[in-house]
Amino acid sequence: MLAMGEADYMNAAQLRYFKSKLQEMERQILSNADETVEHLHENVIVPDPADRATIEEEHALELRTRDRERKLLKKVQQSIQRIDAGDYGWCEETGDPIGVARLMARPTATLSLEAQQRREIRQKMYGD
């Protein structure tokens, strides 16, 4: 995957690989959401206030985690759409290749490393 030349960037094999990886991420996130719903529907009656507080804190943590996953799910689905549209792997800001190594680490990346660094610097400077 990484050994391919620049001319082979985002060829059919790479696109299939990333689509498969993204679809697996999507399945995992949806599975986690289903488990959370089942877990939260369990009615556990605990008379001890300390135990009840612990359970409520665990539920709150689980809900925060699912909220992060909900946001990730949206990015995963957008990435799959970009693959289908032929735009995947290219920086939204510059049009340059994002790079296979970066996409391997973060398959939902929409910016090249340089563009992402510039965006983060602007956000720190201007609160953008």
Automatic annotation (TrEMBL):
Interacts directly with the RNA polymerase. Transcription factor that acts by binding directly to the RNA polymerase (RNAP). Required for negative regulation of rRNA expression and positive regulation of several amino acid biosynthesis promoters. This is RNA polymerase-binding transcription factor DksA. Residues 86-120 form the Zinc finger DksA/TraR C4-type domain. A zinc finger (dksA C4-type) spans 91-115. The keyword Metal-binding applies. Its main location: cytoplasm. Residues 14-83 form the DnaK suppressor protein DksA N-terminal domain. PROSITE patterns: ZF_DKSA_1, ZF_DKSA_2. Belongs to the DksA family. Pfam families: DksA_N (PF21157), zf-dskA_traR (PF01258). It comes from Piscinibacterium candidicorallinum. It is found in: Cytoplasm. InterPro entries: DksA_N, DksA_RNA_pol-bd, DnaK_N, Znf_DskA_TraR, Znf_DskA_TraR_CS. Keywords: Cytoplasm, Metal-binding, Zinc, Zinc-finger.
